[in-house]
Amino acid sequence: MTQRAYNFNAGPSALPQEVLENAQQQLVNFRESGMSIMEMSHRSAIFDEVHNEAIALLKKLYAIPENYEVLFLQGGASLQFTMVPMNFLQPDKKASYVLSGSWSEKAIKEAKFFGLAVEAASTKENKYRNIPALADIQFNEDDAYVHITSNNTIYGTQWKDFPETGNVPLVADMSSDILSKPVDISKFGIIYAGAQKNLGPSGVTVVIIRKDLLEKANKEIPTMLKYTTHADSNSLYNTPPTFGIYMLGEVLKWVESKGGVEAIAKHNEAKAKVIYDAIDNSNGFYTGHATPESRSLMNITFRVADEELEKQFLVEAKAAGFVGLNGHRSVGGCRASTYNAVPLEACEALRDFMVTFQNKHQ
Ligand code: PLP
Question: If residue 232 lies in a helix (H) or strand (E), which one and from where to where?
Fold first, then answer.
C-alpha cells in the first residue's frame, strides 16, 4: 500500500486508517451474511443492529442525556439551516443568530424564509477573527431559539464557552467540532452536524434534539422535513444512508478505543499546539487569522509572509505530500484541518515543513 497522505482536508476529511482497513475487510461479506452492508435491506436485523449500536455508542461517548433523541438524517448541515426554522420559528416569534462566519450567514439566510431572524451578535467587522464575547450576545426571553456555529471551519475560530440561554433553546451547528471535546449537551436544545469531518463519510447528518422540543415543533410542514417524522421512526422513515451509518458506527468504536472523547480532546489540543507554535515562533513569517483566544483546535488558518511566497508554500507543500492546505476559496490563505482522525505525526510533519520552508525563504 502506498503511504497514507498527510490529509488536512476541511471535509470530507481524514478517517482513521484502522477504520478504513477494517471496513475493507468487512466490505464483501458482512457478519457472515454473504452480503455487503450496503447491499442489505435497511429493515434487516443486521442493519437494525448496526444502526442502533451507532446511536447507543454516540449517546454513551458524548454523554447525551436520556431526554435527547439522536437522529441520522440526510441533506447535510445545510438542510438543517432550513429544518431548524421550519420546525421552530413561528410567525409571531423571532430567532436570534450569532454571526461568527460564513456558515452562520448561510444559516440566518434560510431562517429569514420562515420568519423574523435577527443578529444576536456579529464579528463580521473584525473579518470573523474572533467569537463574540458572551456578554455581547443579545436575545429575548421569548425568542424561538438562539443559533450559534460552534466552530467556524472557514475562519478557524471556535467557541470555548457557550452562552447561557435559560429557557430559550440554544441551537448549535457543530459540523466541524462535534465529538472533538466533551460538551455539556444539556445546555443545548438542538445540535446538528454533517458527519464528514469528525464522524465518518459524507451523507449522514447527525441531529441531537431535546425531546420536549419535538412536541412543540410546527405541525403543518412537509413530512420529510419534520423532526418528529424521523424521531417517531428511529430515523428509518425512508431509506437511510446505510453505508454511512455503518462507517459512522465504526468511527465511534475507534473513538472509544482511543479512550473516549476526553482522550481525543487532549490529543486534539496537542496536535493543534504543534502547528500554532510553528506560527507563533515564526517571527511573523506565518500569521494566524484568528485572535489567539478564539483559535480553533480543528481548523488552523494562517497566511504566509507575502502572496508570492504563500503560493509557493502551497505548491511545495502539495509536492511534499500535504493535502488540503489551501484556505477556503472565499478567503484564501492556508488552512490545516486537524480533525479527530488526523494523527499527531501529520501535524509534526507539517510543523517541520513550515520551519524548513521558512528557513529557506526568509
Ligand atoms: N456548517 C459548517 C460549520 C460547515 O463547516 C459546513 C461544511 O463544511 C456546513 C455547515 C455545510 O455542511 P454540509 O455540506 O454537510 O451541508
Answer: helix 227-232
Residue 250 CB–ligand 1 contact under 6 Å: no
Expressed in angstroms and rounded, the spacing between residue 222 Cα and the centre of ligand 1 is 23
The span from the CA of 74 to the CA of 202, in Å, is: 9
Q: Which domain holds residue 181?
A: 18-257
**Is residue 254 annotated as a catalytic residue, yes or no?**
no
This prediction has a pTM of 0.98
Query: 405541525: which residue's cell?
Result: 219
Atom 12 (ligand 1) nearest CA: 77
Q: Per residue in 47-58, pLDDT tens?
A: 999 999 999 999
Domain CATH code at residue 266: 3.90.1150.10
Residues 251 and 316 occupy one common structural domain? no
* Domain-embedded: residue 45: yes
Q: Does the ipTM surpass 0.90?
A: yes
Using CA atoms, how far apart are residues 167 and 280, in angstroms rounded to an integer? 41
Q: Which atom of ligand 1 is nearest the CA belonging to 76?
A: 15
Q: Which of 231, 257, 283 is the last residue of a domain?
A: 257
Please confirm, yes or no, whether 103 is among the known catalytic residues: yes
